Amino acid sequence: MKKGIDQHQIGESVEQHLLIKNAKKGIASNGKPFLTLHVTDKSGEIEAKMWGISADDEAKFVPGTVVHISGDVQDFRGMRQLRLKAIRLSASGEQVNPEDFLPSAPRGRDEMLEEVNQYLFDMQNAKLQRLTRHLFKKHQQAFSVSPAATKNHHEFVSGLLYHVLSMLELAKGIAMQYPSLNKDLLYAGIILHDMAKVRELSGPMATQYTLEGKLIGHISMMSSEIEEAAKELSIEGEEVLVLQHLILSHHAKGEWGSPKPPLVREAEILHLIDNIDAKMNMLDRALERTPAGEFTERIFAMDQRSFYKPTFTE
Amino acid sequence: MKKGIDQHQIGESVEQHLLIKNAKKGIASNGKPFLTLHVTDKSGEIEAKMWGISADDEAKFVPGTVVHISGDVQDFRGMRQLRLKAIRLSASGEQVNPEDFLPSAPRGRDEMLEEVNQYLFDMQNAKLQRLTRHLFKKHQQAFSVSPAATKNHHEFVSGLLYHVLSMLELAKGIAMQYPSLNKDLLYAGIILHDMAKVRELSGPMATQYTLEGKLIGHISMMSSEIEEAAKELSIEGEEVLVLQHLILSHHAKGEWGSPKPPLVREAEILHLIDNIDAKMNMLDRALERTPAGEFTERIFAMDQRSFYKPTFTE
Amino acid sequence: MKKGIDQHQIGESVEQHLLIKNAKKGIASNGKPFLTLHVTDKSGEIEAKMWGISADDEAKFVPGTVVHISGDVQDFRGMRQLRLKAIRLSASGEQVNPEDFLPSAPRGRDEMLEEVNQYLFDMQNAKLQRLTRHLFKKHQQAFSVSPAATKNHHEFVSGLLYHVLSMLELAKGIAMQYPSLNKDLLYAGIILHDMAKVRELSGPMATQYTLEGKLIGHISMMSSEIEEAAKELSIEGEEVLVLQHLILSHHAKGEWGSPKPPLVREAEILHLIDNIDAKMNMLDRALERTPAGEFTERIFAMDQRSFYKPTFTE
Amino acid sequence: MKKGIDQHQIGESVEQHLLIKNAKKGIASNGKPFLTLHVTDKSGEIEAKMWGISADDEAKFVPGTVVHISGDVQDFRGMRQLRLKAIRLSASGEQVNPEDFLPSAPRGRDEMLEEVNQYLFDMQNAKLQRLTRHLFKKHQQAFSVSPAATKNHHEFVSGLLYHVLSMLELAKGIAMQYPSLNKDLLYAGIILHDMAKVRELSGPMATQYTLEGKLIGHISMMSSEIEEAAKELSIEGEEVLVLQHLILSHHAKGEWGSPKPPLVREAEILHLIDNIDAKMNMLDRALERTPAGEFTERIFAMDQRSFYKPTFTE
Amino acid sequence: MKKGIDQHQIGESVEQHLLIKNAKKGIASNGKPFLTLHVTDKSGEIEAKMWGISADDEAKFVPGTVVHISGDVQDFRGMRQLRLKAIRLSASGEQVNPEDFLPSAPRGRDEMLEEVNQYLFDMQNAKLQRLTRHLFKKHQQAFSVSPAATKNHHEFVSGLLYHVLSMLELAKGIAMQYPSLNKDLLYAGIILHDMAKVRELSGPMATQYTLEGKLIGHISMMSSEIEEAAKELSIEGEEVLVLQHLILSHHAKGEWGSPKPPLVREAEILHLIDNIDAKMNMLDRALERTPAGEFTERIFAMDQRSFYKPTFTE
Amino acid sequence: MKKGIDQHQIGESVEQHLLIKNAKKGIASNGKPFLTLHVTDKSGEIEAKMWGISADDEAKFVPGTVVHISGDVQDFRGMRQLRLKAIRLSASGEQVNPEDFLPSAPRGRDEMLEEVNQYLFDMQNAKLQRLTRHLFKKHQQAFSVSPAATKNHHEFVSGLLYHVLSMLELAKGIAMQYPSLNKDLLYAGIILHDMAKVRELSGPMATQYTLEGKLIGHISMMSSEIEEAAKELSIEGEEVLVLQHLILSHHAKGEWGSPKPPLVREAEILHLIDNIDAKMNMLDRALERTPAGEFTERIFAMDQRSFYKPTFTE
């Protein structure tokens, strides 16, 4: 199998198709325009500069386009950068599909959906089960491919589903340790907590915030959807209210976007599990790229800390 | 007309019916139980202690009951307190109605509703007008008597309506000064911004937070109601989304309960007008009770500041 | 009438006189010096780069100079930039006057002064009136042309006067809504609150902070001037003290530069009105430059927020 | 079996031996001295007031003494309080042992020690194992009975051991979910993280901070002990350094007492697990005392939040 | 010489004249009024309660009155309290003078004034010298008796003068260490920095904030006085401006009351010296009252810290 | 004597040996690599750019190398920059020694060590003296050349020793002013407070943080060393504990890296003296480079403030 873009060392040559994920125009200090491209395949992404571009180039090399590139990898201020020797649009006959170039979750979509379904199936409380199943079915298609964020953690195809499943598994272990937890409520909260990201974000390709994402946000959206679903399914009772609360409070603090802090035990633990899975995802990926005995680059969403990778093992 | 409880000076005798707004049991340092009552008539409220109570007294003197009191007003650590000489339940033949004892807005309910209706009538944008009118009709009954809060500002019968009308009048003047403002959007935001307080609070008598008030809050509730109303009325378009945003952002900051900061001009000004009216209400009432040349008591919701009342006039 | 620099679209040619407001030398990555110019006419300003300059150019193209430019407007990282084809000093025979190139308030200076005078004339409290009139006369000349700031809001010729008049008009409406406010005190506070900016800032051309502006600040300066004026006019009484307090507290918090928080009702409302007018000025100008359906650039002095301009109207 | 003090309802009589945990003298408003006692048995504790005490009483009823009490439970401002009818020192013939009256962990000491030993036994990395075992042996006696804190969470006999074991079990599940974690390092960090509480606190009876607890703190003490132990055992290598780092950083932030933030993956997860177990312990105990459908008292160490106990079950 | 009130141990009898510094009425839980008195002599102060007072007592025992007390010192919640056996107004024939009962600085007023004068005399810069001398003369009388604060530090007769002199001596040593410091500027800043406390506070007896103290504050007052004095003395030049800056910035931060942070080297060091002397004064007095081997009470103005007094000596 | 690099004015030619302190590779916007060098001699340092470098250049011009440079000093955005005309490695025959090029303390190492020894010699408390002398001897070699930091203050050869001696001298003056201070304890704390910087930093050349510096920090290291030394010397008693506390608390706050705030008088004053000496060092150096009548560049570690240098003198 061919080496992905992320496996190329400094100094190696590149000769392959890549997807343009981002393209930004700049003006060099000689007054000439250039493009800063972020190109990607399943293995990861790399930056490339196109110097002295024409207006035609600018129109051609846009996000979502697959291009064929030859060049080599060089070091620029401690980061890898791709020096272009040639770049052209991939031809239709080359049978390249943009979706095949996006990084995605390490597990298969259908297998993961199946596992979430099992958690749904095991719920005892009929109201929580019906509400959660209803919303899961409603958004299943988008939910199964959406990233969990535009950056920082789980920002890949099916990242949201992968994040939710990882949280469910953590929750199962924690609920065994603290049997007073209401597992149904916790599982329902986990499955729905970020589900409105399918409306907040524009989807897996060139992901950005939608207008309603910016003005309303996934937290308020999902709370409204639960209220509406309860009416549609004629479900009444405290379950509806408390489940909405879990969604509204899952960022824990006002300054992090939650209009209410957790005021129910399962709301508190939902926030803590979300936090663990996001941090472990960021740390694992940063440390994978770091040799033992060195520090990672600064991790923005972890207070700009740089983590050390020890040289010893178990 | 008879003097209200708030007009009695230190040393004067009291002989009148009063409503028990609050009653809290304590144990004196001699081991005997007592009640701390807050009793009220339209003019204001006063604290009274009932020493050495029986279990029977405890069951009888509960919030919402009208009692006949004789006693006199004395000074206790700089605050007025009512020393009881006698207290009994008012008899049914005395024709006292609890509602008649609650402080309420300085203007008539119907007159205020009429003025809000006029603002609704003058709206040009049909979508905003229909949405706002629909929710106004839905909650009109509770809205017209609800306080705006349990304490701090506008915490009296029809306080919410009085607050909204005052904000509409401020908005009218400000919109003349800055003609770029969308008046319809601003008026709709003002009328709806606190409307879900009718669900968040338990009503004008013995006002407290409801369960959904504590777990969801009036901000998220009203955003959901707008979304639902738009579906019911088949209204589509950015108006719905932006109006929801005005509601969600009207507390301005996450730490003050808003999941989004204002990101639309009218959302910003809605917050500023809300702020002005709440502060002027708190200040006016604190200064009314303060002689010229002195400082008010500390005002909790204004950073515990104590304000000076100058001795000169215009 | 000729199109101003602010009305030129991307791609259009420019051929006109412009005033150099700012000039900053840089070294390009090829080691050669260049100038970053900000050039302006009444309609607004634009950035232009002069590449490969000589020492002679550096001495010639300085702030306050009028130049004749031909070039065209291009897009640079989402901002308009002027590409120079030719630039020369405007000749004396071309009759260009630097003052004619500075952006200024949308209303005439004399008309605005007249209106402020009317507010002064209407005051009832003789002490406040005499104090305010005295200081207004003393600084009238500089006050009538000073900007209100070096950036962010009202940073144009007569910006300070325009800001004060706008605040007076807001105050008039608000005082009708809350009749307990002392209008004379409030108007006096508004007229004087920023008046020492005539000492804090260096004037309308190439505006910067003076030494006393940096070490003392306009808040402390004006408080001292009121004290001194009262002695000169033999005015005694609480009016002097309270008016000083309004000036000292108008930034509301210590971290925003006020040595005292507002402790008088009119001081509180003065701060709130100042806040509204500054924010509306920033928002109006940012939204004017933004098409409907898009977000403004980030506004620094409003917590870096980017505002949305809705597509619907009243 | 006899009912414990925590199972008595308001209005019920008490007739039993209890341990004085705390005794504080006060002066009543009639000028006479009284004692506020906190008395306890295994089930929990209750407050009692002794009015009108003599100097002799003051000397007799001190912390650590077992007394025989008859009285009844009454309500005082929403909290249970014990009204004394009679109180006397328990006689030596009554065979009461202070230790038998202290609340303690829900599991047996030896069984828990055994389980921790098993975690030690399973470690692969010889250096971490030897270091941890050495310190575990050194403090085993005190460690097995120490509370984890003076208040808030795990503040009972063997609370520290119970807390550590609960964290080890959580860690096991989490390490299965994230196989990149170094289990040995994480287990060593958990076992040692709070071990110096045996020096910081004065032990299980009448627990208070020691002088070195106040001036040095358990975090710095244990870091020093690891350094010293490594020298004693001639252990060198990064394990020592990194293990010290886990201890130093386990409170995560400077303002919470850690001189370094977590900079190693296992340090981060150690902090998160510590946080989960402390919060679940606080929540479980507060909710146990709360009927379904009501809110708990405010929990000091969880931002003073009051949590709701839902009425529905799985 | 007779023992002062501060030298009496728990259990000892008191029989002496004392000054009432403060008197506050309360209502006991039996409904009867009482007075909380703070009585003082030069050695310190103590609290005393007068139970069951008459209206006549209330009028008689007011701040500023000297009384003759017999009673004994007892312990109340860890603080000393005076139990009254008898209290009466001191008769005119007893020749007691209120001033003789106030705690005051440990050094004589005239001797301290003389030393400050010496610092003035040694100044080289004529402008700074004349300005400082002028203001020193103007306020010398009040300055020489004023406390430096109402509580926390140097809150005794001549406390301000004592504080200033202590700072001058510190400054002398520090200026030797850092010869780049401008001693004249620093000394002038120290002498004037708190001088307007003579206007901010009401004087040494029953010290409280004046109206201008609350609304303007000593920082702004002294800056204005320097400006005015410079005009009166026809002194021009940067000295005036920079000296004003030292005054304005001596609280270092906006949230601590300074409208400008220190922007001149001597302003920075003035703040640091002020800080040292205030803290050492608070610490010395708290530690004097604390036996070796114990902790002081919490010191409010030092982040509520409680300090340990070691048992060893040099 | 030849002029140092810091004494060269804009426009002057440079022809001398310099030490490379730092070298960072960049890519110019024309795609070609360049080096940003920081070169230094005893007088100070300057930045230089090497354009269009080869791989060979990159390997040759590394930190720690002495080079011979000819070029001239030019202005780049308000900072001095060295334009290279020629650069080559200094030949071994030229007898240049890297140590001779590093900026160092203004006083001689041996003389300073001697003075610190005198402070040690004068101590009265034998335990504190033995502990301090032991650790001083142990680290004397590294201590005498170590910088006190990598940047901000005292970041030069022997900077740590110079800082400690300056603090001792300040302490001597302050202890005379406040005789209640325990001089021995304070001197011991000063001598040891930063001593573990010899382990935290990599030494005087190309100073950076070591691994244990990053993960443990000098504060925790020195506390452990004191504990260990006390065992080694069989010193017992509160002196050990309190001295550790001085080290642990000398950064004063958790967010500044101290696990405990100062809780002993000498700990508080140690922090204040440390603060004064660091700030005076930063200010003195920034002001030395600034002409009278101008402001310094922003000083990072003093809240980014820019300080004014007055034009008048004593």
TrEMBL record, chains A, B, C, D, E, F:
Cite the InterPro entries for this sequence: HD/PDEase_dom, HD_domain, NA-bd_OB-fold, NA-bd_OB_tRNA, YhaM_exoribonuc/phosphodiest
Locate the coiled-coil region(s) and give their ranges.
none
One Gene Ontology term from the biological process aspect of the record: rRNA 3'-end processing
Q: Which GO terms describe its molecular function?
A: exonuclease activity; nucleic acid binding
Kindly indicate whether the keyword Ligase belongs to this entry: no
Q: Does the keyword NAD apply?
A: no
Q: Any idea which UniProt keywords this protein has?
A: Exonuclease, Hydrolase, Nuclease
Pfam families associated with the record: HD, tRNA_anti-codon
Instruction: Write down the PANTHER family for this protein, in alphabetical order.
Output: 3'-5' EXORIBONUCLEASE YHAM
Protein name, per record: 3'-5' exoribonuclease YhaM
Name its species.
Answer: Alkalicoccus halolimnae
